[in-house]
Amino acid sequence: MILIVGGAGYIGSHLNKEINKKGIETVIFDNLSYGHRDFVKWGTFERGDLGNIDDIRAVFKKYPIEAVMHFAAFTYVGESVEDPQKYYTNNVKNTLNLLQVMLEENVKYFVFSSTCATYGNPVEIPITENHPQNPINPYGKGKLMVETVLKDYSDAYGLKYASLRYFNAAGADPEGEVGELHNPETHLIPLILDVAAGRREDIKIFGTDYDTPDGTCIRDYIHVTDLAEAHILALEYLQNGGESDFFNLGNGNGFSVKEVIETAEEVTGKDIRAVEAERRAGDPPVLVGSSDKAKEKLNWKPKYDELSTIIETAWNWHKKLK
Ligand code: UFG
């Protein structure tokens, strides 16, 4: 049985669906602070908090857990600058609680949600796993701290981990059973789709004077179902004796904010009102990753790599929201 911590959230719920499709049983552990109970449509749900180590122990005592996938982190970069304690407590300290119980229970396999934010401002594009890691905000710093802990626990205790550094997760389950729903929403694609759906008046373009072809920031959008598949492959890789390692998960293609808006207009058939605004603090102009290592070592083959497909799956789910 696989323990999915944070399985009621955006990426965890998509992974939960895909792994259940392969006949693997899951238990979902989530405190529902940001997750959604109705996103847990597969496996067994256990409500609990990583801040309370006895909640974690109880789940490990109740189920025959062989491996853990950990998605339960806070992800607002701006908030992490305003309130770093919130981020270090949940994203670092609470992860140590989880690892502590794994060691107590002798559970060896751990798939961790890391981020391209551990690289900081890129000195080279595309970003490979060997790129220097100099995170510029507490969110990225906390994730890097956990990566450091994983290396040391692996050396000392034989923990087997795969740390997956996501670029911009986007899109929704192609069958429309789960999707992206954050409160507050800060991500570009769902905000654009709110405009398309008439729930929001306009989308602000944060900065139009960057050193990029159209002046707006470029990001690497990776479909959430492709991300989910990579987690399953990473677990298989570890279970088959693969060495603990770090893997980028991105599309390898960058799209500017303006290109995303234009593609969303084509996909939805709606006019999307865009307003030029100031740069948002802390946004690197270009973030594009190389995922060659995941493709080679995990045999990962992203299926939904067209931006229009990513937006279409998001739209099919998003337009049904109230
Ligand atoms: N953007 C806008 N207007 C908006 C929202 C976003 O122009 O209303 C722009 C941003 O400035 C950025 C791009 O759209 O250039 C994408 O922004 P998102 O907020 O969707 O995503 P980020 O690239 O900021 O964040 C993602 C992940 C984080 C991760 C970060 C790494 O969501 O978890 O990449 O830098 F930490």
UniProtKB/TrEMBL annotation:
Residues 2-250 form the NAD-dependent epimerase/dehydratase domain. Pfam families: Epimerase. Its cofactor is NAD(+). GO terms for biological process: galactose catabolic process via UDP-galactose, Leloir pathway. Signal peptide: none annotated. InterPro entries: Epimerase_deHydtase, NAD(P)-bd_dom_sf, UDP_G4E. GO terms for molecular function: UDP-glucose 4-epimerase activity. Keywords: Carbohydrate metabolism, Isomerase, NAD. NCBIfam families: galE (TIGR01179). Belongs to the NAD(P)-dependent epimerase/dehydratase family. This is UDP-glucose 4-epimerase.
